Amino acid sequence: MRKTLPAIAVACALTASLGARAQAAQDPPTPAPPPDAADQADVQKLASELQTLKASYAQEVRRLRELDMQVQALQARLAGKAGGAPLPAMAGAPPPEAAAASGATTVAAASEGAAQASAATRPPEDGEQRRSLQDALQQEHALFSRKLTIENGINYAWYDRRQLTLNGFLALDAIFLGNIALQDVKSHTGTYTLTARYGVTPRLVLNVDVPYLARHTSYIQGGAGGAAATLQEESNSGSGLGDIALSANYKLFAENGRRPDTVLTFGLTAPTGREPYGIDWVVPGTNGQTSADDGRFAVPDKQPTGNGVWQASLGVSAVKTMDPAIIFANLGYIHSFAHSFGDIDTDPQTRTPGRVDLRDSYYFGAGVALAFNERTSLSLSFSDKFSQKAQLRAQGAPGWTRVIGSDANAATFNMGFTYAMSQHTTLVTMLGIGLTPDAANYSLTFKIPYIF
Which residues form the signal peptide (predicted)? Predict the structure, then answer.
């Protein structure tokens, strides 16, 4: 009986449990509460932000890959110029994937560095110029982006001029009776010039040029002493400080899409060199006498190094950039002030005070400079200078006397080459070829500007 009661209790409990489960299965489930509208809006907002971030991330990764390719291309090009030397600023740049995974700060830094590299490879925009074009521009025009430039220049010029002199008359329209003399003047001139350029403002640059000249001149005359077959040659040398020039460049208009960069230049030249007036012409070996038994001719006893008068100049130059080239042109006027001297003739036995007026000169030029790369450029130009005939007036004379043969037309074709040796130093070479008898046969110039 005791064992039957527990068994009956267990059976009743199981029966009750099974009945409750069956009733629960037959009853319908209790519906869940409807979602809140605010929660749905939050979910949609977060999903939208997630999609936006994913799209932005993918775009940034693509841009980083493009910039990385540009950096690698620039690094390879610069390494080739530097002879294969590594570039520390680019060698440690992380790949774009690593930059993107490292966080916003690293991505921003990588993007900034790559953008700088990309800016170095893209073509210059308006107002920007290559370093090689800037070096050429400083020689032909004016450059306002450099604060201070010190330039050392050496110039060599060769001058050879022949003149045929006839002293007699023509008989029967075919026979010349008289003396025929051939005069030839050959001159070697070397000039060292120290130039300083200082940018006062972004629109004003001041310049000073201090030259030192050394000259050797040979005078050759045929028919000396009345003998047509006789040749005589005399020569002398001289050196000294030349005429110091001061000038100022002012930018009138900056270059834009329609107009060129325009600069106005005003200059003043001081007569610090040895003037050519009053220099005695003597026969060598005659102690200052103008005649000699051997028939030798007279030559100047010293060489001038300057004009002897004050000069003022006013010019305008224009430059238009057409990358990778620039086109430039200039036009100017030089006025020489009349000046009095204690002696204006060439006779060592007399002294004639008087006044000298060199008159005015006009010049113009045009050319083009082409950039081969960031360091090297080539320029081709033509320049011409017209000088009016000089005149003299002796003290007490009623009027001026024009100097025969003193007017000149000096045309030159110039070819220049610039090479940036370092960040601060440039080598400038220029060859000038004379196109008229009044210009030097040729001139060769070397300049080394140092940029501070």
Answer: 1-22
CB 216 within 8 A of CB 234: no
Kindly state whether residues 384 and 439 are assigned to the same domain.
Answer: yes
Examine the pLDDT at 19 and tell me if it is beyond 90: no
Q: What is the pLDDT of residue 180?
A: 54
SS3 (DSSP) at 252: strand
Kindly state whether residue 102 falls inside one of the protein's structural domains.
Answer: yes
- In the listed set 121, 143, 164, which residue is the last one of a domain according to the structure? 121
Question: What confidence score (pLDDT) does residue 17 get?
Answer: 52
What are the C-alpha distances in Å from 375 to residues 126, 418, 426? 20, 8, 9
Q: Which of 264, 268, 226 is nearest to 243 (CA)?
A: 268
- Domain containing 428 equals 131-451
What pLDDT, on a 0 to 100 scale, did the predictor assign at position 431? Answer: 97
The reply to whether 236 and 328 lie within a common domain is yes
Chain CA centroid to CA 14, Å = 107
Confidence of residue 30 (pLDDT cuts 50, 70, 90): low
Domain boundary among 90, 121, 152: 121
Q: At what angle do helices 104-121 and 37-81 cross, to 10 degrees?
A: 40
Q: Is the pTM of this model over 0.90?
A: no
Compute the distance between CA of residue 136 and CA of residue 264 in angstroms, rounded to an integer.
Answer: 18
Q: Residue 399 maps to which CATH number? A: 2.40.160.40
Query: In this structure, is residue 9 part of a structural domain?
Result: no
- Cis ω for the linkage preceding 324 (within 30 of 0): yes
What are the pLDDT digits (tens) for 423-432?
899 999 999 9
List, in sequence order, every beta strand (DSSP E) within 352-397: 354-357, 360-371, 376-387, 391-394
Number of domains in the chain: 2
pLDDT at 144 over 60: yes
